[in-house]
Amino acid sequence: MSTTGTIADRSWPRARTAVLRDAVGVGVAVGALGLSFGALSVLAGFSVAQTCALSLLMFSGASQFAVIGVMGAGGGALTGAATATLLGVRNSLYGLNLASLLRLRGVRRLVGAHLVLDESSAMAMARNDPREARLAFWATGISVFVLWNIATLAGALGAHVLPDPEALGLDVAAPAAFVALLLPRLRGRRLWALAIAAAVIALIMVPLVPAGMPVLVAGLTAVVAAFAARPAGDR
């Protein structure tokens, strides 16, 4: 066995503990937003069962909020589904990056696809070691899934007694967690410039497009810019 391999094996327990700790932390931060979703969904006219079904089967925070927002405001089911689908496009982009890393087949591929989130993708891509990256994806995805669904149920059951979710600060828990994951990846002036440009574009788009769309537009802008910056032979 090589010296490098021995050192890597010895450091693995420490790295694994760190990954699991971070995954649980992200799960708690993002899961707390599930309280807000559960309460708002019931107040928008959904039953507790319907609210929990959205979290179990759709499991995409932005898309779920889009559904209850559109339908709660009087929109139709098709309009709500179309909006949710549009917001979920970014998960497909994450999947393209994760496919070669996870290399899943069969049932595991279906389960993995269900756990492709902003947070699980960011946690995986923040690791340079493939083994740590795979653990980060699964641990974060499962942590968020479990805590989000527990919080959804709690929020739905306590919809009429829960204070204003915005007053509790739950509406910023998920964005704050994602920003914390993103910052370590911004290495170099080019990446910082791209991130700032994407943020500015998102802010400009807020009054011009429906809710949720500014982030998608900014993300696609960043993808196009990164693609255009690569040498022609590498595209």
Q: Percentage of helical residues? A: over 70%
Shape: globular
Query: H/E order of the elements?
Result: HHHHHHHHHHHHH
Through-space gap between termini: 38 Å
Q: Determine the mean pLDDT.
A: 80
Alpha-beta content class: mainly alpha
Quaternary structure = single chain
The proportion of strand residues reads under 5%
Q: Measured on Cα atoms, how large is the radius of gyration?
A: 19 Å
Number of DSSP-assigned strands: 0
Low-confidence stretches: none
Descriptive overview:
The protein is mainly alpha-helical and 235 residues long. Helix content is 77%, strand content 0%. It is built from 13 helices and no strands. It starts with a helix and ends in a 6-residue tail after the last helix. The relative contact order is 0.14.
List keywords for this structure.
235 residues; mainly alpha; 0% strand
